[in-house]
Design brief:
220 residues; mainly alpha; two-stranded antiparallel ribbon
Amino acid sequence: MSRARRRPRSIARGRMAREQGGGAHGVRNDGAVGELSRTRHTDHTEERTVPPSTPPAPYRPAARPPALPDRGPGPGVWTVRMRISEGDPWSVMVTSFLLLTGLGALAVGTAVVVWFMVEAMAPDVLPELRTVFAVSIGVVTLEVAMGTFLATLGTFIYNLSAQYNGGVEVAVTNDLGPTPAAARALLVMARARGRVGRRLRAYIPARACHAVRRSRAEED
């Protein structure tokens, strides 16, 4: 066969191969396959994160507690003025009752101890112990009842008067040192003590020497 006849066959084979491989090379014309190829292409790409260009937030210090009012001149010294505008009658009654009961128990115990001491030193001078104990119990009971009643009544009167004048004003401070007046008084006392000590050290030895000499002279 001549070459002119063989060429059409090769051309035909090439065309057949293209037609058979059209499924592989023709994926570009297929929409679904094209999307799949695009998704695979995006999967293989590397994602790069761009650092933020915004500046960091400014530093804000923690909120400080509010300052206490009426601060003194010294460091860390503060003074708070409060006003007692009302008292609880029930709490005053209970507190006064317990306090007076304790004081009454001490009074009864003191009376019994004194009776024993006097009886030991001078028998049959005081009445019997039962009489002394009964009298002391009666006095203590009257004292507790009257004291509790007066304390409660005083609370009611204070509450009534506080409605007009506002109550008693109290100043609370954390300065536990002496006040200026007390500091001056302590300074004066220290100076007086120093003067007395110097005078005693100056005069006592001389007087003691004179007393010793006089005693020796009298003995001789």
